[in-house]
Amino acid sequence: MEEADVNSYGNFKEPSKVDGHRVSKLLHRLSGQPESFVNKKDYIFGKTLGAGTFGVVRQARKISTRENVAVKILLKKALKGNDVQLQLLYDELKILQKLDHPNIVKFKDWFESKDKFYIVTQLATGGELFDRIISKGKFTEKDAAKIMKQILSGVQYIHSKNIVHRDLKPENVLYISPSDDSPLVIADFGIAKELKSGDDLIFKAAGSLGYVAPEVLTTSGHGKPCDIWSVGVITYTLLCGYSPFVAESVEGFLEECTAERNPVKFQKPYWDDISVDARKFILRALVLSPKRRPTASELLEDPWIVNCTHTKDILPSVKRVCDARAKFRDAVEIVKLNNRIAKLRKMYCKGDEAETDIEENDSSSCMSAETLSSLKNLSLSEQSTNSSCLSEQEKKLKSALTQDAFAQLVRAARKNQEKVMNYKEPSQNSSNAASDSV
């Protein structure tokens, strides 16, 4: 349905709207469109926020409620023959409709066309967790504890429903609005699973390397405790700016976790100003045995969450480590976004056929082909450097893992061209600090 039709539909009076709705349903049925496709007329679609393997996420406005929302648009052609991904889609829809919590992104609606699925959720406009922290003038341990309390509250809620998120990471924790007192919500339930019982296990690996729990990558099965591990990694990263684990392959990560009794290190000088309570909290969450990990409810009663009063500014230390990396990530991901959108358009469109649902983000589409090419080469160069010391078998494994781990990645490409073009290499001191710690 063209957007001009949507606008005119929005001006109809109530009785005409009802009649028009019925007529539209009949026309769609005659044209082979599913009955729910009529719902699309109630939305005006805006900019593209992100793109994944099977579709895009776009901002939209629901005309009847005047509410801004996010719409995940998945191409049926991309999902065709992929029973696993179709099941994940139905699982996500089933799970989202069961959830209602202040720290969980809200499900709004879903409908489909002959060619696409549309999942409508609450729109979070306040930005990703780390982007927001880096932009702040001050960040304290007390602030971090408040953030983790909200995340744990969301985790406690979904676990009470026997739902495991399986992909908790800073990119999937969003602020609802730009205001200072905006609540946080956990988003992207694309690989979440509902368990038959509280102790039920899942045996198919899924998640993002760096935040995924070790048992997820083995054949032993995983359940709710895998989310607690991710909570520990997020907390560690919040307080110092880098991850507690540096391995880039499954084997390397598992070896890193089991090589020593306690694989989590608190390096100087980054942890000098962080409290003992915070370190104990992290170590509780990052226990290797899932059976020995505390529940979200137990962590909500941890002394660090309940009583943290440390107000010393730790932002300079955190920012020094992760700011330059974030800028590079922004640049590379704009390339990824364009590549994914181009691939989806090619898959869907025939000849000169237009596809208005799959649109490029304004900030990325205005970049020159030369700039995109150079950024792409930079990304490939970094991959080559990181894997130069790996065996051929390890390289193949890493490539497969990277594709898998980021298949669910629908990360916002809202950063504008100016931010990318103004990227500068970090100073020597800053670069050394990051490489020594990460």
UniProtKB/TrEMBL annotation:
Residues that, per the record, bind ATP: 72
A Pfam entry, by short name: Pkinase
Keywords assigned by UniProt, alphabetized: ATP-binding, Calmodulin-binding, Kinase, Nucleotide-binding, Phosphoprotein, Serine/threonine-protein kinase, Transferase
GO MF annotation: an example: calmodulin binding
Region (Disordered): 419-438
Protein family per UniProt: Belongs to the protein kinase superfamily. CAMK Ser/Thr protein kinase family. CaMK subfamily.
Protein name in the entry: calcium/calmodulin-dependent protein kinase
Organism phylogeny: Eukaryota, Fungi, Dikarya, Ascomycota, Saccharomycotina
